[in-house]
Structure formats: structure tokens, C-alpha cells
Design brief:
It is a single chain. The C terminus is likely disordered. The protein starts with a strand and ends with a strand. By secondary structure, it is α+β, with helices and mostly antiparallel strands. The longest helix has 18 residues. It has 3 domains: 168 residues, Cytidine Deaminase, domain 2, CATH 3.40.140.10; 75 residues, Ubiquitin-activating enzyme E1, inactive adenylation domain, subdomain 1 (FAD/NAD(P)-binding domain, 3-Layer(bba) Sandwich), CATH 3.50.50.80; 105 residues, no CATH class. Helix 2 crosses helix 3. The protein contains 7 helices and 21 strands. A hairpin with a 4-residue loop joins strand 4 and strand 5. The strands form 5 sheets. Strands 9-8-7-6-2-3-1-10-11 form a 9-stranded mixed β-sheet. The protein has a 4-stranded mixed β-sheet with strand order 16-15-14-21, with no helix packed on it. A 4-stranded antiparallel β-sheet has the order 17-18-19-20, with no helix packed on it.
Amino acid sequence: MKRSDITLHARHRDKLQALLAHPRGHEGAAYMLLGKSEISQDPWDLEPRSRYTSYEVIAIPQEDRIDASDKHVTWNTNSFAQLCRRAKEEGLVPAIVHSHPGGFDGFSGQDDRNERDLFTMARNRNGEETRLVSVVQVGDSLYRARVWEDDLAPLPCHRVTVIGTRIEIQSPKVPSPSEILARQALAFGPEVNGLLKQLSVAVVGCGGTGSPVVQLLARLGVGRIVVIDDDVVEHSNLNRLHGATWKDADKVTPTHPTPDQIVPGEMTIVRDGVDKWACFNCPGGCGETIKLSLSKNIRPKWTAEPDWLKRPTVSPSVRQLNDCRCHFWIRQGRVDWCKDSGRRSLCAPTAHQVQGR
């Protein structure tokens, strides 16, 4: 399922709060223009994602304001037409923002009807690929958002992130508390573990500094960690790699492993300066050793990337052409079976690297 998220610069958030504030607690409204990035395959969950980033906050002209109370706000759409024109000219996405000062967390039925009309107006002016983002400020500082891509139903945004001198992550789905991290919550507050769980952190270099950092991030409860390092575990660098053992450095072969060297549930990456082959037993249970070419100059070719827990992700999918007929993906060490797959088992490989000499 495609996901969307919004990033607000802190200065834009501050301007929104100033425009939406009312001394008598009435609802307020404003416009934004957003940049858009389309990610065909998110590296974390391998799903498509749209990311919207605040570009400018625009006040609704005083002459367009019609009425407001603590339960509604209305304005003339003349300025919205100008917003759509500018969005098309500059390659941006129009957005409407309004407030719920009473604290109603979400979008009302009236919001649905009004926004559908505005989306139809924007699409008629700017074309079929038009998007309309809607943001609601709940109370003084909580934000919820959604995206209209058609006139049937809007897609909820996964989260809203505010970036300034600090990072604020707001998501309607808060991770459940963990007993393992209970003392951390007592020390820093009950919300800290949920925020850490929503973070995605990349560590570039996993040597004497990076390898302990990765372990500490995991112990803190960071939700997603990616380690970027193409080094190989050897006897000469064991003293610098936290968590690596002598056994890890012993996994060396100059060529393909023999069938009896293939450990069920493990993947062997044959390496001679560069990755050459990924070898593992067929998870369909037929007993065949699968050898995938990782060479950039040979077709067909695959990539096999182990994460910091040595769980491989293989791309593209693997299809057996023998009697087994199994067809599957390997994602973070998990076998995901395709609908047209034949035989299936529960064997999921984990990766260890094999250095060629």
C-alpha cells in the first residue's frame, strides 16, 4: 500500500500557528504550497511512498474570509483558484490548512464534503495528476494530514514531521509500550519510546565507532536502522568490530561452496573483491542449491544485501524452473511467497559473507 508523509519546516509551523490563532477560540484557515518527492520503493518496507515538504505558508486574504466560529470556518475560493494556478506554474502541490481549537482529533464529515469540492476544482484547473493535501491543526500544536488523489476518499498521511532545532514526529499510530524499555520511559517520559520507535537511522561505517553505535541504537529502541559498510569481517579487524567473532572471520572460500557446506537456512555470499554469487538451499524443500549471480556484467543478475543482523534482502524475486516451481522474494531474511509459487516450506536464509582469495 502506498504511504504518504509530510515534513514541515519549523518556521512554516510557527507561521501556521500564528495565522490559525484566534483570541476567541474560532477555527482558522490558511494555505500552503508543498514540494513532492515520489519514492518508487522505500528502502525500509519496499513499498511506494510520497513525501510532501513545506515550501511556503500563505495567508487567506481578509476579503475572502466569510465566517468563523469555534466549530467552523468558511472563506471564498477566489484565493484558492490563485493558489492552484501558482502550484501548476511552479510544479508544487496546493494544500489547505484549518484548525480544530476545541481538540477534535481528525477530519469531520463537513471537512470531507468541502475538501472534495476543492479537490474537484483543483483537478479541473490543473489536470488529472493533481493532488490536494489537507492538514488540520488539533489544539495548538498537533497535526494530522491526508492527501486527495481522487474524489472517492483521501489517503491518510503516515506521519507529520516538524524539523527545526529539534525533530518532532507526529503519527496517529503510536507504537505500544515495551516492558523492556520501561525504565527508559520512567527516566525521559512515556512518549520517548514511541518517538524512538518511529525513527529511521542510517549509520555510515560500522567499524570501531559505528559497530557499537548500531548496538546502542538498537538497545535504545530505534525502529529502523540501516548500516552502510562494504567491509568484510577478517581476523585483522576483529578487535574493532563489536559483535563479530572468530567464527565469522573463518567463513572464507575461494569459490562456490559444496552442497554439504551449505547450511540450511543460511545464505553464502561468494566474494572475491566484489560480490559474485549468493548460494543457498531452495526454500521450497526440493534440495537444490540455488546460485544467484551478483555480477553486474552477467544477466540475469540479483542483489543480495544483508542488514546488520545478517538478514539478506534479495532483488528481484527468485523463480525455480525445475519441478519445484517455487517463486519467492527474500526480504530481511524472510521468504515471501508469490501467488504463482509451487511448493513451499518455512526455510528462510540468513546471510554470511564469504571472502575469496
